[in-house]
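Think of the structure tokens as a kind of shorthand, similar to the way a musician reads notation: each symbol stands for something richer, in this case the local conformation of the backbone. In the example below we present two proteins back to back. Begin with the first one, reading the sequence and then the tokens, and try to describe in your own words what changes along the chain.
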Amino acid sequence: MSDFPGERRAFSRAKIDLPVEIHQGGSVWKQRLIDISVAGVSTDQPDVWDAQYNEPFTLVIDAGRYGILELHAYLQHVEAGRLGFAVQHGDGNNVEPLRSLLSEHIPDPLALEADIEKLNKQ
């Protein structure tokens, strides 16, 4: 399920290489998406990373035909050249476009629906 030993994932992840901008305050880092789920995002780590770890981030992902996903997230970990974010779905505007994007990359549609149901119960 994961390329990192000891890592447990509660949600199915899809490896998708897309551009992502990480915004915090007046700072913007242009990165690449490593993987994504309904509840989390992993990106590569910028060469210069001077973010405030306890402050929220906005991740802007160009999802092609699904449009631009704007996800609000908190940094959960920095390791092995990647950043791991927990996504906060405050208004739910991105859930449907995210579902559409993930449905092309997660082979088991029942797993994706179960993930969305888990997310709704949190």
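Once you have a description of the first chain, move to the second and do the same.
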Amino acid sequence: MANSAPPPPAAPSPASKLVRIIVVVILALIVLLGLAVLITWLIIKPKQLVYRIDSASVHNFNLKNNHLNATFDLLIKAHNPNSRISVYYDPIEVSVAYDGQTIAFNTLEPFHQPRRNVTRLDATLVARDAALSGALSSDLRVQKKSGNIGLDVRIKARIRFKVGIFKLKHHTLRISCSPVKVQMSSLKNFETASCDLDW
């Protein structure tokens, strides 16, 4: 008795062929995009922006009836170490806080920071009749007698990176510098304060 030949395999339908082609094309695009991003990153070699407070002092300090009047002068150092990336800053919000409470605020002008550049920003923040709790007032009086006040400096700005002729989308940059020992006397040496970035 002769064995019957097995039936030939069913030919793949045109729909399944199309699905396979689409999957292969998508995977190829993902691989190419990944390679493009990797090559761009290797060429640009982006480095973290660096910020610190180089000096901080307070003038016209007057704390009366739990209300504070004072002028804070800050020198902020912004360092862009990148050789192929420049940075555009929108208006920069700078605030000074004590024990979590904002006591002074100001806005700095926008600017463009070139590649491999260090920019120093002078910021003057004025506390006008800032209301404090009794506990905060007592703490501030004690710190004033010691010759310096430990404050938090917060910086917020919308920035854009420029790579070659391309400007990338806006990012919100948040910088926190703490503690900043604000000097009551110009005779004391200021200890620079480093800052942390939060994107």
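Compare your description with these statements about the second chain. DSSP finds two helices and eleven strands in the chain.
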